[in-house]
Amino acid sequence: MANDANLEKIQGVNVVVYARKLAEAAKVAGQLIPYQTSLSIDPQRDSDKKKTKSGTVTTTSSLETDFKFEFVNNWSKIADQLLDSIFDNEEMEFWAVNRQRKNSEGQYYALYLRGKVTEDSNDNDPDDVSSRETTVTVDYGPVRGWVTLSEEQEAELAYIFRGVGAIEGSPKNDGTDGAGKAWNKETDAGQGVGND
C-alpha cells in the first residue's frame, strides 16, 4: 500500500465546473461558472439482493449521478444559460476539472457530463450576496478524461501579474502584460540590483 504521506490530498477549491450549451459545442469553449462555492458529484448504482437456494444473487441498476453546484449569483453569460436550460429544456455539457491533477502532457483530470438543469434555486438574504444552487439531471456520464485549458481559461483560475504600463487588448485577461514580468521562483530568487 502507498505511503499516505506521499499522496496528494485534493483540495475542494481546486475542483471547478465548466459548462456550455450542447448546441453551441462547435462555436463556444466551455465557460467557467464564476464565483463557485461548492460542487457535489455523486455517482451511484442501486443494488438488490435476491436469495436463492444456492446463494444470494445481486443485481445492480444503471449508473445514476447526482450533480449540483452552488455559486454567487451573477449575470455572466453561462449563469444565464443555466436558466435557459431549465426554462427551455436545453441540454448542456459540464466538466468538473481538478486543477491539482495533471498528466504528462499538462492536461487536467476531469469528469465530463451531459444533462439538463432541473432546479436552480436562489437565496437572496438581505445581509449576504445572492447565491444559487443548480441541480443537473445527468443523462450521459460521468466519463473520465483529460482536458486542456487555454491561456485565457488558466488566467480565470489564477492571479496574473501585470506591470504598471498600459494594457493593450482586452483589459481583463487576454491583453498584454503592461510591460511587467511575473516572478519565477527558480530564476528570480535572490536577484536584484541596487540603485546607484
UniProtKB/TrEMBL annotation:
Disordered, as annotated region: 168-196
InterPro entries for the chain: Phage_69_Orf23_MTP
Protein known as: Phage tail protein
Lineage: Bacteria, Bacillati, Bacillota, Bacilli, Lactobacillales
